[in-house]
Task: structure prediction
Amino acid sequence: MSGESGRVTAGPGGDLFLCGWRVRSDLVLPELAPWNGDEQEPDLTIRIGAVPARLDGALDVSPLLQVTSQRQARLSIDGVASYWLRSSHEIVVDPQMAADSPDIRTFLFGTVLGLLVHRRGLMPLHASCIRIGGKGVAISGMSGAGKSTLAAALTRRGHALVSDDICVIDTGAVGGPVVWPAFPRVKLWQDSLEAMGMGSDGLEANRFGQRKYYLRFAGAADFQTAPVPLKAVHLLRAQNVALSGQADIQKLSPMAAVAGLNDQIYRKRTAAIWGREGELFKAIGQIVSAADVYRLTRRSDFSQLDSLLRSIEDDAVS
Amino acid sequence: MSGLHLIASYPRSGNTWVRALLTALMRGDGPLDINALEGPIASDRSFFDNALEIETSDLLPDEQRRLRPLAHRAVPPPGKSFPIKTHDAWLPAPGAAEPPFPREAVGAVVLIIRDPRDVAPSFATYYGVTLDEAIAWMARPELSIGNSTQGLRPQLPQLVSSWSAHTASWLDSGLNLTRVRYEDLLADPLPTFAAIARAFGQSAPADLLASAIDASRFDRLQAAESSEGFRESSPEAPNRFFGAGTAGGWRQRLTAAQASRILRDHGPMMRDLGYDD
Result:
């Protein structure tokens, strides 16, 4: 632990990998792969320390979130932790529970990561991403649409997880948009685990007392860290019943794709306050011109899951 | 008229029917697409995720209930928007300090009330429970829907409470409220619907109101649901959302014991509303 000096030394496992960044962390982050890249200074330091109650010149985006025009942010979850995105290289976390509790990482790898991605000029799409045939397939949609469940089901068919819930896209990469791998973990509710024939025994809960769990795949050390070209985005929605004349998978026109992707920008209100709308609009244009965008409708009860998975696979390699 | 416009009702009391009427009125002539009804749902998770800049699925139930009214303060209501559907009671839910909408943000409420003896059979079908269970649920002050326990629901938890407590909470709220009985909307649709439209600042000539009423007739809604499907129908009763839309059907559906149990549970409020025959 860093103590008062604010200096963070590499943990016993060394530095870590997240979205292409070298991460040095006071917090134990068991989801992350080890850093195997160049001997460089860390891109991101996660420090345990005091977080001011109020950031200078802060605007309250919500009762939980303050942001400043200098693109700092403070998220506070009572009883869990406060988080201070201080710069594009530094996050300060002030835990209010044991520092190794998964609850703390739930928000670190949620809103805080999303805001960091904005701060670093990339595009965070509300999506999980899978590597199929060397290409990135993003499954996007609001909470409850079934992103993580589909992603987990695809990993069970031999594909590798690239990211869960936040899909970090660099649209300016040479050769077209790429997805930066995050870590090999999805969050699944009890019913989704059961639908896949798994139980929750031994899994860490997303929040204490909540029946939503962390499901980690293989060893973090085997995680492939190279960026993946984005091939397809599926805009997913869940529906209780089948509607006549509605296809399960429907390729969208460019205009519908732009609107659909815009809806799924992660932490959009803060991004707008930070003046990113123009950049993000351009990024969406680059995604739509390089990748196929589909509307994917699933049954709420995950019936017909296998045929949906096969369609996703077929579209990924077409 | 500024502020949130709410269509408040107990579940299975005609809320979606009123949304259909208002949608038809807004769209003008022609058949109604039941899968494109206007209007947000008050407890829609995506609204709160967006307003709070957090996944509410990562919040515990008490946290979600506490933050619901606060989210409306974070995102002020748009100047003019379609009325919002809500089944919440006007009560602070467990963990919350106030009812689910900030009082100062509410512009107009239309409260739809239906004879609980007709609510019960529809409630049983929609939630996939027996009539006796439905009747027991409707008497529970702590009744809540939309709870995510084993899996994630698309709505935040809503404290609905018992039929009596729900109805009383709105009637006693002191909000700018228009009370509408489902039975009056059925029996005398034109003036009743006109009052609803007026409450939301959407006065319209009688011919437009009449064509909206015609487009939203229950036989048409039912026919559309059985031919196309209805995305708002429940997993427990797929594509059986719209019932016969009648008043007094309970006389055939309930046993004498069930009817008197409801009268015992809700008698005072039923008598106040004229449901005492």
